[in-house]
Amino acid sequence: MTSQTDAVGGKYDQFAQAGTTEALGGNIHAGYWDSGAEHVPMAAATDRLTDLVGERLALRPGDRVLDVGCGNGFPAMRIAGTHDVHVTGITVSQQEVDRATELAAGSDRVAFRLADAASLPGDLGTFDAVFAIESLLHLPDQASALARLRRLVRPGGRLVVADLCQREPFTGAGEAVLAGMIRTLEIAGINSELEHRASLQKAGWDLLELLDIGENVRPSYEQAAAAFRRIADSAPPFAAADIITAAELMAAFGENPSSGYVLITARRP
Ligand SMILES: C[S@@+](CC[C@H](N)C(=O)[O-])C[C@H]1O[C@@H](n2cnc3c(N)ncnc32)[C@H](O)[C@@H]1O
C-alpha cells in the first residue's frame, strides 16, 4: 500500500466507525431512480444501481467475479446471490474487510480481503468479470489499474464501472466544491466522460456502452447529505467535522448540473 491508499483506507475506516454505512443503508454508492419513482427509499435505490451493474456483467452461474473497492460487501453479496456466482471483494479499508466478512459469514461464494487496486497482489487469481462501483475515482492512475485488471479477466469477460463524472469542467463555486470533495473524501479526481473513455482505451478494454445516468442518481446526493447530517451529532469527535463537511459538499455537488454519473460496460478483447 502507498501513503495515498493508506489515506483512502484510513478515511473509509473512519467513516465506517462513525456509522456512515448504516446511515446510507449498507451500500456506499448512489441510488438509481427511474423517472417518477422518487418515492423509492435510498436503500432500495442503491440496490437498484447494484442490479444495473450486475445485469451488465453478462454472468453465467459459477463465474468468478472481482469487486474492486467492495465497501462493506453489500454489492458483492447481492450480485453473488442474484447471479449464482463467486465474488472476491477487495478494499483498502480493514474496517470494511471486517464488516464485509461478517456480512458474508456462512457464505462459501463471497470473500473479502485487504488489497490495493493500484498494486494488485499476485495471488488474487483470474476472473470472468470485474466491477468497480465508485472506487476508481480514488485512483490517481486509472488507466494503469484498468490494464492490470484486464490481465486478470478472461478474453470476452466484462468490466462494469459505475462512477461520478464531470459533464463540463466545474467552474466558479463548483470548482471549490470539487476541490473540497477531493480533499475531504480522499478522491484522486472526477473524470470527464472523455477521460473515462481514454483510460479504458489506453488499458485495452473494448467499450460496449457508456451511459450518463446522472439524472437518475441525482436525488442520492441530497439523501446522503441528510443521512450524514443525522449522524453527525453522535459521530465520534475524530469524524464529526469531516461528516458535516462531506454532507455539505455532497449536497452542493448534486445541485450542480455539471455533475454526471457514468455506467460503463466494457469487454476484454
Ligand atoms: C465509495 S466506496 C464504494 C464501496 C462499494 N463499491 C459500494 O458500492 O458499496 C469506495 C470504495 O473503494 C475502495 N477503494 C478506494 N481506493 C482503493 C484502492 N486503491 N484499492 C481497492 N479499493 C479501494 C474504498 O476502500 C471503498 O471501499
From TrEMBL:
GO terms for biological process: methylation. Residues 61-168 form the Methyltransferase domain. Keywords: Methyltransferase, Transferase. It comes from the Bacteria. Transmembrane segments: none annotated. Pfam families: Methyltransf_31. GO terms for molecular function: methyltransferase activity. This is 27-O-demethylrifamycin SV methyltransferase. The lineage of its organism: Bacteria, Bacillati, Actinomycetota, Actinomycetes, Pseudonocardiales.
